[in-house]
Amino acid sequence: MSEPTPPTMAYWHVYTDADGVSRQTKCELTQFKFEGVDPQTAPQWNDKQEKTQAGVTFTVLPVGWVGEWHENPRPQWIAILSGRWFVETMDGTRVEMGPGELMMGEDQGTRERDGKKGHLSGTVGDEPCAMIVTGLDVTPTVNQPGRFK
């Protein structure tokens, strides 16, 4: 029997480039291993990230919510549970995300340009956007999109 092919998982990485401009690009988690989370658990595909302290917040953005230009408070994974939202970065890229989509917010250290610093975000459509936000206690990187493999 052949080895099963490991899956990949897409995510959007919002990051700061070397010039202090926020950008976003689609990346993939690719380091999945077929193993149990402990010896008593059946094997499953796991992509274990570096251990760090983390804070989890469940967030519901109301219909019409707009978060004016701002940086992510710290590197954080954002998983959309229901509804839709958008993220627009300083380079003009706007991405809309919905249920099941994942984003890494790592745009700390941007430099204001034309009244923009970080990113603009808001809800899309006529329902609230529910998400789980996992803030990591790690040092943000600069110009390393896709660093989470």
What is the element layout, followed by pairings?
Layout: E1 9-16, E2 22-29, E3 33-35, E4 44-46, E5 54-61, E6 66-70, E7 76-82, E8 84-89, E9 94-97, E10 102-106, E11 119-124, E12 129-136
Q: Average pLDDT value?
A: 95
What is the CATH third-level topology name?
Jelly Rolls
- Please tell me the CATH architecture by its name: Sandwich
Spans with pLDDT under 50 lasting ≥5 residues? none
Given the helix and strand composition, which structural class is it? mainly beta
Number of helices: 0
Number of strands: 12
CATH class: Mainly Beta
CATH superfamily: Jelly Rolls
Sequence of strands across the biggest β-sheet: 2-1-10-7-12-5
Radius of gyration: 17 Å
Offer a quick outline of the entry.
With 149 residues, this protein is mostly beta strands.
What does this 3D model show about the protein?
Residues 96-124 are annotated as: Disordered. Residues 108-117 have a biased composition (Basic and acidic residues). This is Cupin domain-containing protein. The protein is mainly β and 149 residues long. The protein has a single domain, classed as Jelly Rolls, CATH 2.60.120. Helices cover 0% and strands 48% of the residues. The chain contains no helices and twelve strands. The chain has strands at residues 9-16, 22-29, 33-35, 44-46, 54-61, 66-70, 76-82, 84-89, 94-97, 102-106, 119-124, 129-136. The strands form three sheets. The protein has a six-stranded mixed beta sheet, with no helix packed on it. It is globular and about 55 Å long. The chain starts with 8 loop residues before the first strand and ends in a 13-residue tail after the last strand.
